[in-house]
Amino acid sequence: MKKYILDLTIVENRRIHELYTLLILTTSDGSILPEMKPGQFVQVAVDGSKTTFLRRPISINNVDRENNHLWLLVRNAGEGTRALMALKPGDLLNVVLPLGNSFSMPKNQSDLVLLAGGGVGVAPMLYWGKRLKEEGYMPKFLIGARSAKDVLQLAEFEKIGEVYVSTEDGSMGEKGLVTTNTVLDTDINKIYCCGPAPMMKAIANVAKAKSIDCEVSLENMMACGLGACLCCVENTVKGNVCVCTEGPVFNINELTW
Amino acid sequence: MVNLGVNIGGLNLKNPVLTASGTFGYGEEFADFVDLNRLGGFIIKGTTINHREGNPYPRMAETPSGMLNAVGLQNKGVDYFIENIYPRIKDVDSHVIVNVSGATIDDYVAVCEKLSPLDKINAIEVNISCPNVKQGGMAFGTTCEGAAQVARAVRNAFAKTVIIKLSPNVTDITEIARAVEAEGADAVSLINTLLGMAIDVERQRPYLSTITGGLSGPAVRPVAVRMVWQVAKAVNIPVIGLGGIMNGRDAIEFMLAGASAIQVGTANFIDPSVTMKIIDYMDEYCLRHGIKDINEIIGMINN
Ligand SMILES: Cc1cc2nc3c(=O)[nH]c(=O)nc-3n(C[C@H](O)[C@H](O)[C@H](O)COP(=O)(O)OP(=O)(O)OC[C@H]3O[C@@H](n4cnc5c(N)ncnc54)[C@H](O)[C@@H]3O)c2cc1C
Ligand SMILES: Cc1cc2nc3c(=O)[nH]c(=O)nc-3n(C[C@H](O)[C@H](O)[C@H](O)COP(=O)(O)O)c2cc1C
Ligand code: FES
Fold first, then answer.
1. What CATH number should be reported for the domain holding residue B285?
2. For residue range A150-209, what is the model confidence (pLDDT) as tens digits?
3. Among A228, B65, B82, B201, which has the highest number of CB atoms less than 10 A from its own CB?
4. Cα–Cα distance between A91 and A254 in angstroms, integer?
5. Does the C-beta of A248 come closer than 6 Å to ligand 1?
6. Which atom of ligand 3 is the closest one to the Cα of A228?
7. pTM to 2 decimals?
């Protein structure tokens, strides 16, 4: 897929609460946003600060073709993401996109699919859930978070399919970790997961135990995002491979977890 | 029209802009952003005789105005390069320079012998300075004898242009430069990364799996400019300057210090199209200063 460097314009910075924001962007010259696949990500430039020298990888949360909008869901993790959270409508954001591979379609049209996201890891699941629904699947979502306020984009997910929630403090949905959520006891043929590494590993273990096919989206530290620097590697059954080009999505069979 | 062409030890470059090894993949990764034919040349990633897995993750940490890396020469080996990569890039209208690494003299020689017959490979850059490899590598680059030994061996094994890439992690880089010049090196390039280290104070452990790594980016630029200036005065072979070049201004800075050509490394990660802008800037800079030939500015501060 052809990659682009674009100056995108901020249409809206929708603050979710102090930790999260939804950035809605569009092209600055009115052109149509390039093709992007669910699971892919973008590399954003964070102005001239000395400590945010490299670009920051952010998942594609949604591509709203009707309005020519790109959605990025951002969690305040440090200086770079804080700068993103401070962007105002009309500001420009320089982005390299689209990067990485994408989720793969379930094998059979009748497959029951579960999309699990932890914290800001829900980001790629919205775009993927929408695509699956368009393709005739009935995706279910499992959202894990510390507490109710960290459950992101609930209303958006509810528009697409059934949503199950696990919070660590029990303030929403079932109390506990996603791996104990009762939705995992229902019939599932395929799980897609994105979130903190311990969560993805736990989900991978559940999937293995139940022989469910499972794909995870990794968030290794990146520099180039283009497969050139070899900084982002994950150790797989094929040796060290770049998460930015051969991932971020991997089938758990390929990983050495 | 301004002449941007320069000559590096027999190699005619259409302009002084090269890309630095390990930061530009095999060139193809940047094809959507860069017209590879416009580059003076590109230096592909460190190539060794055998496949290398490199160091364990994490291999990268961001630091003020720079980054540390500890990739450890991950590559699929020279045979894989010749069979799979070379056929895809051999028709590009620009120089393809292979960066050669090894743990022993025999390794360097073996890689050179395999590259010699390739028509498109008119130059190699010999990495005697990678700080991420336990044996050889760094050790060769930090002593005059070690550097001379490698230079002599590759000189005998490769008849075309030999560029020796120097390590900045030495007390006097001019001694090493003179030692490789004496063995018949056609040019030197500098600097490779500076040995560095960073610690995650919350987790109370180093960021890199290897604890130490190589620092690159604008943080190293003043050190690199100083070393290029020193080496350019110490040797009679061309010097290729690099280390923290982020834009056209920085590239000119290295040339004024004495570099005949420059390499762009880490900057490719931040702006994948930066090399094109640097070439344009050189043209514009020369016009603005009434310079007809970029060769006039090489080492100009010494005039
Ligand atoms: C493929 C991919 C998709 C991602 N999608 C999203 C997303 O949709 N929304 C979101 O909020 N975050 C996402 N992230 C994580 C995001 O990139 C980091 O939180 C961000 O880079 C941190 O930068 P900072 O300057 O705010 O924090 P820093 O102070 O630089 O770092 C804080 C922590 O963030 C992590 N981090 C820092 N730099 C990177 C980097 N270059 N790559 C990966 N992790 C890093 C490290 O664990 C670090 O300890 C994604 C990461 C990857 C690799
Ligand atoms: C991720 C990364 C990988 C590198 N790999 C190599 C390599 O394989 N061989 C080599 O000679 N130099 C390697 N280098 C060093 C660069 O070529 C260059 O000398 C150094 O980064 C300084 O230039 P810069 O500041 O413009 O990046 C690497 C640098 C980086 C950042
Ligand atoms: S981030 Fe450079 S290779 Fe993946």
1. 3.20.20.70
2. 999 999 999 999 999 999 999 999 999 999 999 999 999 999 999 999 999 999 999 999
3. A228
4. 41
5. yes
6. 3
7. 0.96
